[in-house]
Each structure stands twice: as structure tokens, then as C-alpha cells.
Amino acid sequence: HWDLHVPLILEERGKEEEPLKVVLGRKLKKRCSWSPARAAALLLDSVPILKWLPQYRIKDWLLGDVMSGVIVGILLAPQSIAYSLLAAQDPIYGLYTSFFSCIIYTFMGTSRHISVGIFGVLCLLVGQVVERELAVAGYVTDVQGNRTGLGSLENGTFPDCDRSCYAIIVGSTVTFTAGVYQVLMGLLQVGFVSVFLSDSLLSGFATGASLTILTSQLKYLLGLKLPRTQGWGSLIKTWIGLLGSLDQTNMCDLITSVLCLLVLVPTKELNERFKSKLKAPIPFELFVVIATTLASHFGHFKEQYGSEVSGHIPTGFMPPQLPAWSLIPRIALDAFSIAIVGFAITVSLSEMFAKKHGYVVDPNQEMYAIGFCNIIPSFFRCFVTSAALTKTLVKESTGCQTQLSSLVTALVLLLILLVIAPFFYSLQKCVLAVIIMVNLRGALRKFCDVPRMWRANRVDAGVWLLTMATSALVNTELGLLLGVLASAFCVLARTQRAQTLQLGQSGDRDVFKELTAYKGLQTLPGVAAFRYEAPIYYANQTLFKKSLYRNTGLDPVKERARRKRLERGKKQEEERKGAEQSPEASSGNFLPHALPFHTLIIDCGPVLFLDTAGVAALKEVRKDFQEFGVQLLLAQCNTSTIDSLRRGGYYDPETGNVERIFHTVGDAVRYGQSLLSQNGDCDTSF
Q: Which regions span the lipid bilayer (predicted)?
């Protein structure tokens, strides 16, 4: 009985809600206040190297940082040259990109381990924009694949610009615009958006883009001189072009590609299998580049067999140049998707390695860092960068402790830029394509994980498959967009599919669980308890009411309609028979059965929030059940839900709906049972 049990009573703390004007004023004052201490803190937050460099432990960290920096630099050089092909740029620009990004992230990044540089998916996106703008500007590709001429569209702006010059102008402009987007997102403190890009979405996008990258490199393996396909379905168009040109395969390039694959694939696997025993991965890519360059040079592959080679790679640095402002309106949308992908990959890797090694990264500062890694290098003929998983794993496994290793990597790249770069003149492009394809193994292995993903979570697996298929078969940007929409729809759909479940009590304990999930639970006389496992808001409030009415056995709308029909029938009967009345109508019982409870309890523990529509739905439910003699009680409401109920006018003493807060379902049940003595019967007839 209610009197024999002491309900849980909690005293609420007083809340003083400040006016919005006061809150905004205080935050604005905090942001805009200026003092030496504030300036110093802002400088340390903006340039994190000033925090950790004075605390650098030379004896413990220097050797690992130097070793990892040198190894990553050696591995990065051939990859930078290779990925320049993917971005539709000359090899020298890939080296520039890796060099500048390493230096800038060292000063501005908060992660100790990630390696920022060229990433294949971003190179693909940049390359698609570059090829599109080259075609718009009038560059044409002849049957042999040679790009010639500049149309009249851009002659007035870049009169002396050849194909290579215009390609890097487009690439650097895209990079500048993407960097501006990223810095603006950092200023607006929207680093939290990364949480909305799920792992399944990013993995599916990367795998789909990897298929496109793989397909785009096949023409170099076969020595075919084909233009890059544009628009939707580029992967299918590329395969059609490849199959139609197989008779033009360059046997020299094909043999070189097969030999490189036979060397790199097994040696990469050996590096991964014995990475715990090796102090550093063996740079087989560098060995292959050196060997094939020497073979191509002394074998005269270009002159005798027509093999495409890297060509002249200048030493030193070119003078800086401004982005092409006139191009920004045309590439702004492309740059936005590139900015989002680059930031999401960087933050995901940063947080993953920070969690592994026990430190914290700042997502907003990462936004600034990767933004300036794009803005500043864009003036020095570079293209878009982000964190790269493969090189980050190499850094971690070779003893990296801080971003000082990135400075060492930059010194290795500087040596290559100043001295070694011209020696890669005879390096075949098919070798660079092989390097790209071999590095895609990790993304392509995700196909083997699909059955496991499907067993673990079909929703995530569905998002992965949709994003991957759209990115590969239709369009990479559309794949990302559909993946985001699918993820958001799945979250929304889960709140739409929530059910109202009846609860039962376990013995004499205050434990109430779903009757359909556990055995041995008991229902209570006169009281029915239900749990709704989702927030109640505008999108699902109708489904909440339908589910509740269905499970309680009462649909007030249908019952009102039934009553009206019976009343009309009663009147018609009276008109025909005068004073004679229908027994069913005169009894006042409009249902052939009675509800077995007079108190309905809703466990609101899973209800994280209510909006205006949710409060209105609860008011309607309460009114409907009160009409048929059933009292509605809410239990285990969190403070946010209680505040919403109060602001929405759910509690109204003038109408008799006084505020009753039950912190446990047991308290609500005992209160409901205490009404038995007042009603005298547990059945509610109407």
C-alpha cells in the first residue's frame, strides 16, 4: 500500500535562467577580452609546438623521431611522385605538397603521431576537378593521348600557360578554397561535425573511391594513352575504354608493371607480417623505383618502346603564385566536399592514435592545422593534403614520439627536391601506377569484412554498401552525400521503429522489465506499465500514440466513433419504437469488454527529450485515457523532460493535473495501487 512504502523524494536545486542577452554578452566578452595572459594562451593554443617543444625529452624521444622521420621521408618520396598522376599534376608538385604540409602541421597540429601529406582519395577528387577545368578551358586530348592547345575561354587570363601550368593553377585554387573552408569551420567551432561521419560511411567512401583510383591507373599499367573520363559512371566508362583499346597495349609497360607487382605485393605482405620483429619497414618501393629508373634510362624505354616517363623534374622551388580568383565560383562546391573529407579523415586518425597512446587532440585546432596545411602551400603550387593512414602507421611503428619526426621527413624531402629529383626523369609512369595500386590493398580488403559487418550490424553494413557502390559506380561526391543522408535517415528511422513495451515486475523487487524479453515477470492488478524506447518529438509522436493505443487495447478515436454510431442507432431506435430503448445503448457500456486497469504508467527513462509536439502528444494521451476513467502517470523522467513538460503546460493545477514526479516505476505503481481503495474495483468499464 502507498502508506506502507516511502516513495523516493528528491529536492530539486533552484535554477536561475539567465536572459539570452546576458548569456551572449558574457560569452562575447570572454571571447573578445584581451590581456597578456589571454594573448599567451591563445598563442599556445594556436601553435601547439610552443607547448610541447620546451618539454621535449631529447634522450628519450630524439632517436625515435629521427628514425621514423627518415623512414617516412624515404617512403614518401616515390609515393608523392606517384600520387601526382592521380591529381593530374606533374611529379614535382607532389614533392612540394608533402614537403610543405609536413612543416606546417608540425607547428599547428595537436596529434603526436599522424603523418599529414598526400592521400589517394583526395588526389582523385582534385584530379577530377582539374581534368574537368582543363576540358572547359579548351585543352584537348588527341588520339595518342597528348594534350594540346588552349581554347579561347582562358586565353585572356592565362595567355602563356600550357597544360601543366594550368593544371597546377586549378589544383592550387581548389586547395586554397578547401583550406579556407576548413579554417572557417574552425572559427565557427564546428569540429563536432566529424562525429556525424560514421566509420562505416568513411570506410565505404574510401573503398568506393579506391575502386575508381584502381581503374584510373590501369591505363598506365597497360601503357594506353586514354583521356580521363568525366561525369557520372566514370568507372564504367573507363572500363569500356580500356577493353576497347587492349590491342594498343604497350608490352614494355605491361611487362614492367607485372614485374613490379610481383615484387611489391609479396614484399609489402612480408613487411606487414614481420612488422613486430622489424625495427623499420624495408623501403621496397624505393628499391623498385631506383631499379626501374636505371633500367628505363639505360634501356632507352621511352625512345625504343614508347613508354611514358616522368620527364624533367626541376630542382629547387618555383616562385609563389596567387590562386586564380576567377576559378573559385566554378570549383567552390567541389572544394567544400574535399574540405569535409580531408578534415574527417584527419580528425578520425588523430583521435584514434590519441586514444591509443593516452592523450587528447582538439578537433577545432585540427581544423585550423589542416586548413593552413592547404592555404599556405597553395601559394607554392601544391594540392590538397590530409592525414594518411599508411604513413601514420609507419611513423608509429618506427618509434615516433612527437611531430619533430615530420620536420625530419621534410629535410629528407628537401634533399630530394634540391639534389635527387632530376634523376627520376626516366621513371616510367606505369611504375608509379603500380605503387598507387599496391597501396590500395588495405581499402580493398574491406570487401572481405562485409559478411562480418552484416552479422554485427545490418544498418551499418547497408550504409557501407550504399556509399561504396555509389562512390564507385556513379560519382564520388554523390557517394559521400548519399552516405551522409543514409546515416541520418537510419538514425531517424530507429526512432520511428521504437515500440511501446509492456513491463512486468520481478517478484517483490522494484525491477520492471519487458514482458516479451524475460520470463517469470508479473503484471499488477489495476496498473499497467509501459516503456517507450525513444525520444518523443514531432517526427514520431503519431507513431508513439498508435503504438501505445494498440498495446493497451484502447484506441480513443475508434471508440469515440463507435459511441457516435451507437448514439445514432439509439436515436433511430427511439424514433421507431417510441419509448422502447436498445438494451445495449441504455446500459451506457459502449464496449463489450472492460480495461483491466485504471492507472497507466509510462516509463520515460529512455525518453531523452521532448519537443512541443511530444508534450502535446502526452497531453492528448492523458486526455484520451481520462475520458475513459484511466489515470496517466509518468515515471523516471530526466530533468530535461520534466522542464519540457513544465514549459509545455503539461502540469496544470487548475484542471486538476497537479505535478507528480515519480523517480522510479515502483513509486508510480504503488501510487496507482493506492487508488484501488478509492475505486473499489480494478476494472474500468465505459
A: 61-86, 165-184, 190-214, 282-301, 327-347, 368-390, 410-440, 461-489
In whole angstroms, give the CA distance from residue 260 to residue 76.
18
Q: Whose grid coordinates read 530539486?
A: 12
Tell me which residue has cell 554485427: 456
Other beta carbons within 10 angstroms of residue 361's beta carbon come to 24
Going from the C-alpha of 543 to that of each of 9, 154, 459, 462, 501, the distances in angstroms are 33, 58, 21, 25, 13
pTM: 0.74
Alpha helix (H) residue ranges in 474-611? 476-496, 541-552, 556-577, 583-587
Angle at 321 between CA 319 and CA 326, to 5 degrees: 165
The bridge status of strand 386-387 relative to strand 500-505 is unpaired
DSSP letter string over 590-637?
Answer: -SSS-BSEEEEEEE-TT---B-HHHHHHHHHHHHHHHHTT-EEEEES-
Rg (CA), the chain: 34
| CA angle, residues 197, 202, 205, in degrees to nearest 5 | 130
**What H or E segment, with its residue span, contains residue 447?**
none
Instruction: Measure the CA–CA gap between 683 and 678, rounded to whole angstroms.
Output: 13
Contacts of 139 (CB under 8 A, 6+ apart): 147, 148, 149, 150, 151, 163, 166
448-460 confidence digits (pLDDT tens): 888 998 998 888 8
DSSP 300-316: THHHHH---B------S
Q: How many CA atoms lie within 13 A of 85 on its CB side?
A: 28
- Please give the Cα distance from 68 to 280 (Å, whole number): 8
What's the rounded Cα separation, in Å, for the pair 631 and 659? 13
Say how far apart CA 665 and CA 635 lie, in whole Å.
5
CB-CB neighbours of 522 under 10 Å:
11
- Alpha carbon distance 395, 280 (integer Å): 9
Q: Cα 606 to chain center, whole Å?
A: 25
Phi, psi of 602 (to 5 degrees): -110, 120
Q: What is the pLDDT of residues 13-66, one digit of tens each?
A: 666 666 767 777 777 776 666 677 777 777 888 889 998 899 988 888 888 888
